[in-house]
Structures are given as structure tokens and as C-alpha cells.
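Quick log. Single chain, no ligands specified.
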Amino acid sequence: KKMNTTFVATRHRPPFSFFRLISLFILILGGSSAFTTANASVGCSSQKSCAHASNSSNESASSFDAPKGNGERRLKDIKAREAELFTLLAEVRQEKAEALASQPLNIGVVGFGRFGQFIAKAFAKHGHNVVATSRSDYTKEAAAVGASYISLSDPEKFFDNNGNGIDVLVVAVSILSFEQTLLKLIPFMKDRDMLVVDVLSVKEHPREMMLNLLPASCDILCTHPMFGPDSGKNSWRGLNFVYERVRVKGIVNPEAQTRNRPDGLDYSDSSTSAISPSSLFFDAEYASGIDRLERFLSIWEEEGCRMVELSCNDHDKYAANSQFITHLVGRILGAQGLVETPIDTKGFESVRTLIGTTTADSFDLFYGLYKHNQNSLQTILTLRKSMDDVVGELHIRERKERFSNVSQGEWNPNMNELTPRA
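-> predicted structure:
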């Protein structure tokens, strides 16, 4: 009876039986000995069942007669395939670069200070036609990086760009002057089909400004290259490039099409109401907008940047507790007037380096990080509270020691301190 009961229980195991598991163990562990050990550990109740498992995997088992040698051959094969994939990837990247080079973008850069020149040089290196404009005359500087220059005093001429127009407009001005710069340019941007890109260190502010002020004919991309002429002077490889696709052909936040609504669209912009969701991916105009945006992003990708797609809202939350607090602490320590000493530690040298890098930037940048990131004030308040908490711990510890010394020590009136007994 016991044998019958056991047999019935075995017959009625779940569909994914132990025998299938045995086959998987054989594939993973390799070798006929592994098969024997697995069978013994399960405790097969019939030779027929074990034979069935053996037959179902006999091809795999026979291929593992020499586990060690076979494992070495398998690893060698995998490495060879991996090398082939790397070669294929390099070929695809080369083809992509050639395809992009055959369709260069006309990129306009507004604001041609150090950062504007820094990124314009990379744009030109990738074969794009770059035209710069600024309040001052940067004709020589533009020529040095492979760009042309048209004065900001003639915006119509700049946007016409010798009849070539502007495909991508990069606004590389300060945080504080961003809104006013847009207001000056907008009268000359009406009905112009272009992608407008900001490179500010805050993101919600330019996103809101561009959505509210730019004509519907303009696509919008918010970016933050988290490096500059100093940190990226040798290479951009591995450096963070944060971006959000904000608007493409009237569709706000196109990346959220399938996340925010059942029909796949974000209708926060009234101009999207005439767009049919079913025809979105077959719309040639929309496809051309996406293509232009991707071609611009590919410049940063090909330069080796770590591409971080992030919402402007999340960017500002993170930046307040990383970039802004770095500038804040650097400014606070700099205000203390710390100077080099004969006994500087490595830690103190790092502190002085922090002071140097943060105070080298303009106070306008620091103020912009504060004024146009709604999370910055909370960072200040949290830092202040944290400082009070740490200093409070020191006071608590000091009071505990004094209380202890009152009962165990003696009072020294000259030092106004407690002197412990020997």
C-alpha cells in the first residue's frame, strides 16, 4: 500500500517535473556523472522514468563526455562570438557616422562664450554646419573652431544663415539671461521649423519658458551636459549628458506616449488635439522631427557621453542635492577665508580645491542655481538643520563630560574648567 501511495503521488506531480529539472542540471553542470548524481538525489522510482529523462537529453549528455575540455571549448567559442559582435558594432557605428555625415545639420549657437565655443567645436568636428551669434564679436573665435559668425544685432540674417536656415538652435546663455534672450529671438522664429535646445544647469525653468514662449513650429529638447571646458577638455567619454525630449511636432513629452494615457498621447499642449494617435508613427512630419532630434543627440553619444534620459523635474531634484549643494558648501567655506598651512592634510587640500572650483564660477551661476531650482531653498534649510544637529551633538557631549567631572573631578577656578583627579 505504501508503494502504491508513493507511485500515485509521483504520477500526480506538477507538469514541470523533477525529470525536466534533471535535464537542465545536465546542461548547466555538464557530464554524465552529473546526470547520475542528479538522478540519485531525486530518487527515481522506476527505470522507465529515468530512461525517459535520459532519452530527452541524451544529445546534451553525450556532448559533455569531457566536461573540462568541453567547457574550455565553449568559452573559446563564446569569446569568438563576442569578438564578432564587437566588430559588428564597430561597423554599425561607422555606418551610422557616415550616414549622419551625409546629412549634416545646420546648428546655430546663441551665446558664444567659453561653453558655446566648447560645444560648437564638437558640432563642427562631426561635420555639421555651425553658425554662432553673440552680443560681442567672436568672428575669430568662431573661425578657430570651424564655425561662422553672425552678429546678434542682425537676428534675421542669423536665422537665414546664408539661405541654409537653422535646423537646431542651441541657446548657450546664462540661467539669468535665458528668458530675455528667448524674448528677443522669438519675433524672428515665427513659422520656422527648428529644434530648440537649452544647455542650462537647471531644467524646469527653461522647459517652462520654451513651452510657454516658443512658436508651435519649434520642437524642444532640454539638456544638461554635466561637464564643461575644463572637465571635458581631454574627452567627453563617460561624462553625463542629461536630456528630456520635451516636444516634437506639437506632441509634449513624446517619450511618455505609452505611459501617461491609454491612447498614447499627452494632451497638455492644445496643439496635439488634432493629431490622431493611430497615425502618429506613420506621420512623416513627426518622423522627421524625431530624426532631427536623434541626429543631434548622436553627436553627444558618439563623443562617448553617458546618455541619461531624465525628466526635468527629477533632474532638478537630484541637482539640488548634488550640484547646488556642492556650490553652496564651496561658497560657505570660501567665505571663511581658509588658506594654505604648513600642515595641510589631503582632506584639507580637497576642501581648498572645492573652494577654488566653485568660486571660479560666476556668482550669477550660483544665484541662478538657487533662484530657478525650486528645490534649492530646501537644500539650504536642510544643510542648516544638519549643521545645527551636528553642533548640538557636540554640546550634548560636552555637557555630559562636565556633569561627570562635577561628581568625579575638582573645580579649577583659574581655567574655569573641570580638572579630573589623577
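Residues 72 and 131 are 57 Å apart (CA to CA).
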